[in-house]
Amino acid sequence: MPNDANPLLPGPEWLMLGAPVAVLSVSLTLIVAAGIYLLPTFLAVARGSERLWPAVLIDVLLGWTVIGWIAAMILALIPPKPAPSAPEPAPAAAPSSFAD
Predict the structure, then answer these.
(1) What is the band of 9 on the pLDDT scale with cuts at 50, 70, 90?
(2) pTM of this prediction?
(3) CB 41 within 8 A of CB 73
């Protein structure tokens, strides 16, 4: 059946690009899917997370369960603990009014 009836459908010249277009689209889809799957790992590394290895392990091993992916994302995004502040120096001793 010729494609003259509907100009919105691609014609036979588009079908000639089948294999290269399929390889490119599958490759691009896999790259995007891997990027989304490993997003918690990338964020944990970029943020220097204290929970880097747990986030990576949960993401890689359990990310496919979606719950594991969410858990890894939470671990990657938890803010770091604040650094302990230095204790304030003790006030200087008052001068003694007793003469020795």
Answers:
(1) low
(2) 0.64
(3) no
Is residue 52 within 8 A of residue 71, CB to CB? The reply is: no
Residue 44 is assigned to a structural domain of this protein:
yes
Whole domain around residue 58: which residue ranges? 38-79
DSSP designation for 55: H
**51 Cβ partners below 8 Å, 6+ apart?**
44, 75, 76, 78
Tell me, yes or no, whether 12 lies in a domain: no
Q: How far is it, in rounded angstroms, from Cα 32 to Cα 36?
A: 6
Q: Is residue 10 part of a domain?
A: no
Number of structural domains found in the chain? 1
